[in-house]
Specification:
Elements: E1 6-13, E2 22-29, E3 35-38, H1 45-52, E4 60-65, E5 68-69, H2 75-84, E6 85-88, H3 102-113, H4 125-135, H5 152-164, E7 170-174, H6 182-199, E8 202-206, H7 210-216, E9 219-224, E10 227-233, H8 234-239, H9 244-251, H10 258-264
Helix pairs in contact: 3-4, 3-5, 4-5, 5-6
Length: 265
């Protein structure tokens, strides 16, 4: 049995004097098996993602990294965690510093982690940035430009390059394509699928788009009001949902009316 890289074990979260946002949530992230977190707005998806990212601590239960409880005070553990787990946010316009050139933005994780180590300097920072940009389909001269010089899809590619430059094992993505137009969305999903195959990247994704979920994630967890009501293989959850809430989510996906479908065929 493959050990989990990340795990929420009975995790809950509540703000002071407020109803719980999450309650008794358990989920595993194993190598090579993408995980989707789906549910309506306010279901607790982003809160769970933030717990897995170590940005917040659960008020009950535990978050585990490589089998050990995640502890922000353990510097050695957190350094390994930050190298292994990176994130891409929803809005490519606000997630990039407009005052910095792309090369410096992409290199930020390397600086914060002190990479590459002087004793094993196989590649310098500029080479690592250029390789990350190449991997997301951007030319090397992109490093010398500013975010405002790029389209929305290209900015999200920059954000993905920043996330993969330190060769993480897990990418946590919070609605990474929802702010993009349809054609750009398809290209970014294809890019994430390619990175999954070529780099062995495990993707954990919050998404409202079930088509994206079906493309990228082998495991799906459905959250309703802070609890996981159903989880399992994505094909089974989306194809034969057991819980009424999951069925309502699937039924709410927009579909073309019959006449429009016939006109396009």
């Amino acid at each position: 049995m493959t050990s989990a890289i990340l795990e929420a074990r009975g995790a809950g979260f509540a703000y002071r004097r407020a109803a719980p946002v999450l309650a008794d949530v358990s989920i595993e992230v194993t190598p090579g098996r993408g995980v989707a977190l789906v549910g309506e707005s306010g279901a607790g998806k982003t809160t769970l993602l933030r717990l897995l990212l170590g940005l917040m601590r659960p008020t009950s239960g535990r978050i585990l990294f490589d089998g050990a409880e995640l502890s922000p005070r353990d510097r050695v553990q957190m350094r390994a965690f930050r190298r292994s787990v990176q994130t891409v946010f929803q809005d490519p316009y606000s997630s990039l510093d407009p005052r910095q050139r792309v090369g410096r933005i992409v290199a930020e994780p390397l600086r914060s982690l002190g990479l590459p180590a002087p004793a094993s300097r196989r590649m310098d920072v500029a080479e690592m940035v250029a390789e990350a940009l190449r991997a997301v389909g951007l030319p090397p001269d992109a490093a010398h430009r500013y975010p405002h010089e790029f389209s929305g899809g290209q900015r999200q590619r920059v954000a993905i390059a920043r996330a993969i430059v330190c060769e993480p094992r897990v990418l946590l993505a919070d609605e990474p394509v929802s702010a993009l137009d349809v054609s750009t969305r398809v290209r970014i999903v294809d890019l994430l699928a390619e990175l999954r195959e070529t780099r062995g990247l495990t993707v954990v994704m919050v998404s409202h788009d079930l088509a994206v979920v079906a493309t990228l994630c082998q495991h799906t967890a459905v959250l309703e009001r802070g609890r996981i009501v159903e989880q399992g293989d994505t094909a089974a959850v989306l194809g034969s949902p057991r819980h009424p809430y999951t069925r309502r989510l699937i039924d709410s996906v927009p579909r073309l009316p019959p006449r429009a479908s016939q006109a396009r065929s």
